[in-house]
UniProtKB/TrEMBL annotation:
Residue sites binding ATP per the record: 85-90, 190, 225
Residue sites binding substrate per the record: 107, 131, 153, 209
The protein, known as: Shikimate kinase
Pathway listed: Metabolic intermediate biosynthesis; chorismate biosynthesis; chorismate from D-erythrose 4-phosphate and phosphoenolpyruvate: step 5/7
Positions of region (Disordered): 1-20
Residue ranges with Low complexity bias: 1-12
Gene3D superfamilies in the cross-refs: P-loop containing nucleotide triphosphate hydrolases
Gene designation per UniProt: aroK
Function: Catalyzes the specific phosphorylation of the 3-hydroxyl group of shikimic acid using ATP as a cosubstrate.
Key words of the record: Amino-acid biosynthesis, Aromatic amino acid biosynthesis, ATP-binding, Cytoplasm, Kinase, Magnesium, Metal-binding, Nucleotide-binding, Transferase
Cofactor(s) the protein needs: Mg(2+)
Length: 263
């Protein structure tokens, strides 16, 4: 593989300079706030239909224990990035249940806010419009608390999104081979893979984006593994990351610097 991050970012259509303003921005905000306070959907339907899934069932019962400190979790916010078909949506949902956190799938949020499916947004509004929606959603979800965020495959490729996400918290990147991605996506409708040779397209796009995905915080392989095992590895790796992060930020030099800054 061996991708050039600058080239990869340059080859993806850049989002428009101006962020979405007015109605669409308001609708994104409304959807996020509204959906977080809506009554929960039944768990069996939620994995398919959820946009922002509030805590439900077992998670809801566990949540007072988490907030009382009786049960600890490694992080209160985490995002999942990676190529199409690596399992971000499915694994993100399962991870959110395991950690008793809210769940946001950015593609589903855009679908809900725009009122069109992702292929319709690409076909009728164009990819740049979709990327502008993504950028607006990233700004919003970076401010959320207690949430697992599953991104679209291209979200992390754009530099401003990447910076906002990495400043907010850990970004777990899921990886899979082009063959696995092809098997997992061939019966779905991903606009970027609607070409004569989808496997070839997966190979070249993955190659372009690889260097950028490498900038994530934690990297986990998803080939030939059930999602429960992937979730377990992510949680273990998040614990290791959070221990190292706290050891670093609480070292005496860092505390002295932050004391001076506070004076
Ligand atoms: N670990 C896995 N093993 C087998 N199938 C998986 C796994 N993770 C995801 N899938 C399936 O692959 C397809 C794509 O997964 P999805 O979560 O939508 O990926 P992404 O959001 O990264 O595009 C879905 O049908 C999903 O159920
Ligand atoms: O890689 C990409 O640019 C895209 C990935 C898709 O999400 P998934 O990665 O969840 O399939 C979706 O956001 C859109 O079709 C574009
Ligand atoms: Mg997805």
């Amino acid at each position: 593989m061996g991708a050039d991050p600058a080239g990869a970012a340059a080859s993806a259509p850049a989002p428009p300079d101006t962020p979405l303003t007015g109605l669409l921005a308001e609708r994104v905000q409304h959807a996020l706030h509204g959906l977080l306070t809506f009554p929960p959907e039944p768990p069996e339907a939620a994995s398919d239909r959820a946009i922002v899934t509030p805590l439900t069932g077992e998670s809801l019962r566990l949540s007072p224990m988490f907030s009382s400190g009786l049960i600890e979790r490694p992080v209160d916010w985490v995002a999942l990035a990676g190529f199409m078909g690596t399992g971000k949506s499915r694994v993100g949902w399962e991870l959110s249940r395991a950690l008793a956190l809210h769940f946001v799938d950015t593609d589903k949020l855009i679908t809900r806010v725009v009122g069109k499916s992702i292929p319709e947004v690409f076909a009728q509004e164009g990819e740049s419009y979709f990327r502008a929606c993504e950028a607006e959603v990233v700004r919003r979800v970076s401010r959320l608390e207690h949430a697992v965020i599953s991104l679209g495959g291209g979200t992390f490729i754009h530099e401003d999104n990447r910076r906002a996400l990495l400043e907010r918290g850990p970004v777990v990147v899921l990886w899979a081979t082009p063959e696995t991605v092809y098997q997992r996506t061939k019966h779905s409708d991903r606009p970027l893979l609607r070409v004569e040779d989808p496997l070839g397209r997966i190979r070249s796009l993955m190659d372009e984006r690889e260097g950028v995905y490498r900038q994530g915080t934690i990297h986990v392989h998803s080939d030939g593994r059930p999602s429960e095992e992937i979730v377990e590895e992510i949680i273990e790796r998040l614990w290791a990351w959070s221990d190292a992060y706290h050891a670093w930020t609480e070292r005496p030099e860092a505390e002295a610097v932050s004391d001076r800054a506070a004076d």
